Amino acid sequence: MKKLDRRFFAILGQSKDKELNGVKRMRLMVFLKCVGIAGLIVLLTACGMFGGGQSDKTKGADPNKQKAQSTAKPSIIDQELHKQYNIYKEIIQYQIEQDKKAIKQTEERNKKMKEQSEKQSSPSPSPSASPSPSASPKASSKPSSKKQGGGKSES
Questions:
Q1: What average pLDDT does the segment 143-150 reach?
Q2: Is residue 32 included in any domain, yes or no?
Q3: Where in the sequence does UniProt note compositional bias of the Low complexity kind (predicted)?
Q4: 113 belongs to a structural domain
Q5: 24 and 5 in one domain?
Q6: How far apart are CA 51 and CA 48, in angstroms?
């Protein structure tokens, strides 16, 4: 005890050889107790704020329980979100189907247009077999009327 008292008084700047009376000794002991208690309080609050070992164990167990509960009973919000997501998927699927139909229709139109243009550009076997001049003007007048009629119906 005397060694401890002498060290603290040495730190405070007093000589080691000085004898301490009871009052000074009591004050020193009270001061040391207060410092110790304050240190423990600071340590406990720091552990409480930054998480202790026991709270980590309970945190690890809670998410498992929450997952089990969430899978058992989905909340109303989750149900609504799931319904809306399914509706969204159906809308996207419908749009994809409509796009495919539109692509098929345009391909069919292109094929028909190509067939018509091939028929118009290639001479028919009957006009080439008959060398009469009256047959050839009829063939040339038909494509021009089709082009004019086709142009009017498209616009």
A1: 47
A2: yes
A3: 131-147
A4: no
A5: yes
A6: 5
